[in-house]
Write a structure and sequence with these properties.
The structure is a single chain. The protein is elongated. The chain is built from nine helices and nine strands. Strands 3, 4, 5, 6, 7, 8 and 9 form a seven-stranded mixed beta sheet that branches. A two-stranded antiparallel ribbon has the order 1-2. The relative contact order is 0.12. Helices cover about 35% and strands about 20% of the residues. The chain has two domains: about 15-115 and about 125-230, no CATH class; about 240-305 and about 310-330, no CATH class. Helix 7 crosses helix 8 and helix 8 (about 285-300) crosses helix 9 (about 320-330). By secondary structure, it is an alpha+beta fold. A hairpin with a 7-residue loop joins strand 6 and strand 7 (about 160-170).
Length: about 325
């Protein structure tokens, strides 16, 4: 996909579902997305052609998040997702074990909590209370209270961005679907450089600053996808079997995380540096520098050159020349 607000591009391809740890790394000012679970989410047509049941993207997310909660008992798990996962079934299923943060439509149906049931009331208990105004109406309403915040890591960068937020709690509900208590957060730019957005969080006790700081970390996934494609060859391999397709991309994305973990140890020993050029001023190491440092460390440990038997076959290579050749090979591989 290479789309923008004014230009939409649609292309056929494989759709991958990935869970990634959004965590800071010691050599970077931004959060890195480190993939650790990846699966191929086949399309509905693919399942129909093979006579199999179609598994929706939200089904993959529900299964993966519940498995993650089992892997991490006693830990608080916050799952940040885009609008594709903002379906009522997903937060309803996992909200007791995982906190879900995602985009929310401005015209979502939001209600007050149901009133307390009085004695001798006939009929089924109410699911929701009175209807709340839509978030689209709250944006322009003069009584909406706005709070000014500075958010770090806006669009995955290391700077800070001033925004205005409004927040509240409601019950998100549609007819025929479960009701989910959520905290909604409206975000707008004081300088009107982007359109107002809405977020939801299944943790009603989370503040607007927490919700926004969690959500902006998701943009690091786009950086990881671009770096994995550029340096590890994700989406550029050609396989001829379904099994090869299903295992290659998860292995390469897992390799991205392994490189970051190895680079953390090198950084602690002062062995992680970054290249500078006259036309590009790089302030901190990027994934290409981390990959080159890991290659250099692995090649240095594995290099065992056999000594030739005849003295005439031996060629003395200066250490500076060998280091320079190794550096070029690490960045060019």
């Amino acid at each position: 996909m290479r789309s923008s607000h004014g230009h939409f591009v649609k292309a056929s391809g494989l759709r991958w579902f990935t869970l990634a740890l959004l965590a800071p790394v010691p050599w970077s000012s931004r959060v890195w997305a480190l993939p650790f679970l990846t699966a191929l989410a086949a399309s509905e047509r693919h399942a129909r052609e093979r006579g199999a049941r179609h598994k929706r993207l939200t089904d993959w997310a529900r299964q993966a998040l519940l498995q993650l909660a089992r892997w991490l008992p006693g830990r608080r798990v916050v799952a940040v997702a885009d609008r594709s996962y903002a379906a009522l079934e997903l937060p309803h299923t996992v909200r007791k074990r995982v906190c879900v943060v995602a985009r929310l439509r401005l015209d979502a149906r939001l209600f007050d909590p149901p009133p307390a049931r009085t004695p001798r009331t006939i009929g089924r208990p109410r699911v929701v209370g009175a209807r709340q105004p839509t978030l689209a109406r709250r944006i322009d309403h003069p009584d909406t209270p706005w709070l000014r915040l500075e958010v770090a890591g806006w669009h995955g960068g290391g700077g800070r961005r001033a925004v205005e937020v409004a927040s509240g709690t409601a019950v998100w509900h549609h007819t025929g679907l479960p009701a989910v208590p959520v905290r909604w957060v409206l975000v707008r730019d004081p300088q009107r450089r982007f359109d107002p957005q809405a977020l939801l969080c299944t943790d009603l006790g989370a503040g607007p600053a927490d919700v926004l700081s969690w959500f902006v970390r998701r943009w690091s996934v786009e950086v990881t996808s671009a770096e994995a494609r550029r340096h590890l060859g994700v989406e550029t391999r050609r396989q001829w079997s379904d099994a090869a397709i299903a295992r290659t991309t998860p292995a390469l994305l897992g390799l991205f995380s392994l490189v970051a973990l190895r680079a953390a140890g090198l950084h602690a020993r002062g062995a992680l540096t970054h290249r500078r050029t006259a036309w590009y001023r790089k302030e901190e190491p990027t994934f290409s520098d981390a990959l080159a440092a890991v290659r250099r460390s692995l090649w240095t440990e594995a290099a065992r050159f056999p000594t030739p038997r005849r003295t005439g076959d031996r060629v003395e290579v200066p250490r500076a020349v060998l280091d320079r050749l190794t550096d070029l090979a690490c960045h060019a591989a």
